[in-house]
Amino acid sequence: FLAIYSTFMQRAYDMIIHDMALQGLPVRLCMDRGGLSGDDGPTHHGLFDIGYLRHVPGIIHMQPKDEDEFVDMLHTMAQYDEGPSAIRYPRGVIKGTPVKPIPATLEIGKAEIVADGTDVALVGLGTMFEMAERTKAQLEAKGLSVALINPRFIKPLDSDVLQTYARKCKVLCTFEDHVLFNGFGASVIENLHDAGIHTPVERIGWPDQFIEHGKPETLRELHGLTAEAATGKVLSHFPMG
Asked: Interhelix angle for 184-194 vs 159-168, to 10°?
């Protein structure tokens, strides 16, 4: 196990490729500050690790929605010996979710379907799952049937779940605490394109710029990472009478 900030891992990228992945070693990366780091400023915002890890052959990459799932992912990493794995988690206080006495071993690459729906599928990665929940409530207030998915795995993606909901829903919306370029939402779009599925995918995430110092809530509002922004993007696909 290696505990390290997401931004500090950038300095060791060559080691990820040559000393871990190429040799298939079961190094387990616990990447703190995975996402916006608020008061730490732009040197510590971990907004690039999905992009620099997801194209590395053989790596497993995860992000939990709460502390109970975080423990499950640590337990799963400990059982996984076929190559390197990584878990990203944010700076900040915990939610207070009860942690079960015995952690579960997660199926690699398997998402959690939290709610079914037929109009919209919301895919909330990690800490952005709460924003997806708020978006779901707003869309349901408009009369839409909304699916809610906790992807758990950034790599490998759960192609079956994503493609099933892309076929049954009119639009998908992904949520990630990461830059949009080469991020989680981009990987979802690639996955659907390769399967010949052309359902629109809206994305909530950080823009192509270095994000300034500030309180997380202020920065999310400033850059459009809100449930209200997500709701507006999704509703643009549904003419409302």
From this structure: 70
